[in-house]
Write a structure and sequence with these properties.
With about 290 residues, the chain is of the alpha/beta class. It is about 40% helix and about 10% strand. It has one domain: Alpha-Beta Barrel (TIM Barrel), CATH 3.20.20.20. It contains eleven helices and eight strands. It binds pterin-6-yl-methyl-monophosphate. It comes from Streptomyces nymphaeiformis. Pathway: Cofactor biosynthesis; tetrahydrofolate biosynthesis; 7,8-dihydrofolate from 2-amino-4-hydroxy-6-hydroxymethyl-7,8-dihydropteridine diphosphate and 4-aminobenzoate: step 1/2.
Length: about 290
């Protein structure tokens, strides 16, 4: 197995050791934190270019909300939403990842110029995903996921969240390699907010070094998530809305950058780009 691909840049991605900023473009009417704003192809491509101008190193394009209880979009609709945006951004020289659980969407997105497949199910939702990504020879995000559920809490049951997430991620990594995806093409992700309650998410962020110890680049996607709302909720008040969690998101980005994450996936890029730069400057001064 060639080891030359074990560099992000050999795969067309930001280098594994630098904490890239992955901007989010959700082409959906119902994503939890920005649903509907970029539902039109032209608006979505412009938004992706704006995020790059603000400091995003790559753009993650998704056409199906993954929030708990979201109804699934049919494949044709997901293709209609995603492929023109992937193509439009790639045509502008943007590094694009596709956020999908469907093999057909992943394959068509790669044909349109996507360089990374970001599947929140880690290949569990569509049995064709792993062989498709293996054949396409592109990097693949393996995120910790315990299945679809209208009641995410029913899946968020752990004796030791870190130990169990590490074990379940190792299992998925082995399945992905057995399915033909080169280990050097795997990116791992703890799946913050997926089958996890706030204490679980906070514990995973507190133990990012142990996740890094799995030996693959780490993607951290805390942006605007519920656990941040939980942390920000004052006594007796209601949690701030998702769009008021960007400073908290940037705080997690700084922590992730400081602990060696490959990338942080965020909706609001500017604050996180600054946070990552501060983390790098501090490391440089160590
Ligand atoms: N790799 C990865 N992809 C994701 N895609 C969507 C969302 C949640 O939806 P959003 O796009 O509205 O944040 N979270 C993740 C995540 O935690 N990790």
């Amino acid at each position: 197995m060639s080891t030359t691909i074990d560099r992000g840049t050999a795969l067309g991605l930001p280098e594994w050791d630098r904490c890239a900023v992955m901007g989010v473009v959700n082409v959906t009417p119902d994503s939890f934190s920005d649903g509907g704003r970029w539902f039109d192809t032209t608006a979505a491509v412009k938004h992706g270019l704006d995020l790059v101008a603000e400091g995003a190193d790559l753009i993650d394009v998704g056409g199906e909300s993954t929030r708990p209880g979201a109804t699934r979009v049919d494949e044709d609709e997901e293709l209609r939403r995603v492929i023109p945006v992937v193509r439009g951004l790639a045509a502008e020289g943007v590094t694009v990842s596709v956020d999908t659980m469907r093999a057909t969407v992943a394959a068509r997105a790669v044909d349109a110029g996507a360089l990374l497949v970001n599947d929140v199910s880690g290949g569990l939702a569509d049995p064709a995903m792993i062989p498709t990504v293996a054949a396409a020879e592109v990097p693949f995000v393996v995120m910790h996921w315990r299945g679809f559920s209208d009641n995410m809490n029913s899946l968020a049951v752990y004796d030791d969240v870190l130990r169990e997430v590490l074990t379940e991620l190792r299992t998925r990594m082995e399945a992905v390699v057995d399915g033909g995806i080169a280990p050097e093409r795997i990116v791992i992700d703890p799946g913050l907010g997926f089958a996890k309650l706030a204490p679980h998410d906070l514990a995973l962020v507190a133990h990012l070094p142990e996740l890094r110890a799995l030996g693959r680049p780490l993607l951290v996607a805390a942006s605007r998530k519920r656990f941040l709302g939980h942390v920000l909720t004052r006594e007796g008040a209601t949690p701030p809305p998702a769009r008021e969690r960007d400073a908290a998101t940037a705080a997690v980005s700084a922590i992730a950058a400081h602990t060696g994450a490959w990338a942080v996936r965020v909706h609001e890029v500017r604050a996180t780009a600054d946070a990552v730069r501060v983390a790098r400057a501090v490391e440089g001064a160590a």
